[in-house]
């Protein structure tokens, strides 16, 4: 692949922040930038440049993907990432107006800055020719309502209908399934029972199969916001969420079934119960002592080596450990999600209004018609499938039932060493449009009507069946034939998916933001101290200090503001 990747490990991070699964990818690339001079690019009437806030790659979109796009739309593409060496180029390029022909924005603030700078085209009058984008009326209407009838951009991850997805929710815990079966597959009545099982597993297996230290639970702190990030997700196992699809609530747990709300420092909140639970893990000696200081990469390495009996983000077992250790899964050893009896797993339905990432056309582009044609193609069913998996016939094809399945070459999906044949364009098969540009259009979890399956290959029926390891097959047999945890929970009535509705994206005002940051710093500091308290008296003393300090700083103002915003959401989703 011609071009260069500018950051080494961001793809593994994006696999989590996008939650919609399967973006974990290798980032190996060659070190030469062959994107060519600006003059060369501009001289080609069919060459378009994409300025992307989400990409880590700079250079041409070539290989089998570039060839397929050229055949479908008549254009060739180059990518310019916003961030280089940790420094954003957006402000400079807003001043010069040099943002290529198309842009991908990853937040509303930058999108609005670009609009105010006059570098984003209003495409409302062009919509008559955009037959694919026009299908997503809720998303288009949302944008036109926000900008007084003007259409400056199209939200990403849109869906024609609000669908319950097949994807496993991120926060369902996974355990070493072979260890769980060694214990006799005991009943797990509630979330807190996992601790007893993790302790038993750690005592029986103090070392991993390769001799590394085994922990009951491991955490990391690098992604903590206004509280411990990993712990906030715990509420998703109890019927609560902290996000509505457009906004994140830093201090609330919002009920999905009954619209109830708890602030995270309330005595009965899931967050506070979780702190007590993790403190119990520490006092039992089964919590990784590095949890408060380790980075995401540290945590990921331990997950890949199987150093936790319990993974709070259960997908990491099935997407990180299991594929890294095929010799283990072949022996029915590895991680699988283990639901508990009282679990109410929460996730969002596919969104008809999209999210807060946006595709836009540059007002400075001299190739607007070409850019519009390309963008409309990317919002087609064919384009959505191509974005995820490349063109039909290379890594995937249709089986006798007309459903997508991986080809023999596609069995190596993600491999930077495996090349496509020259007749289809060549290049590393790992270099998909998704990897190079990272600008989604249609939600990968939505059923693609052209193929009657989602675009996300890891939840195709063919993939779940044909790629099943002996470990997967054993789990399926134990869980009544379900192909994954989501299917099992839906069948048991233990899954609740909420609709993403059109509510305002909100911000704290400047004064409140200061309070929010101060309160958040206290919550983070004391949460970790409470987890590592050596006795109950110390835990309770730290808890009292945290509550007093946050109260004095103005915690109630933060909660009151978010409660008002959350009420708008709960009212809207009930209409």
Automatic annotation (TrEMBL):
Transmembrane segments: none annotated. Gene3D superfamilies: Periplasmic binding protein-like II. The keyword Cell membrane applies. Keywords: Cell membrane, Lipoprotein, Membrane, Palmitate, Signal. This is ABC transporter substrate-binding protein. InterPro entries: Bact_solute-bd_prot1, SBP. It comes from Enterococcus devriesei.
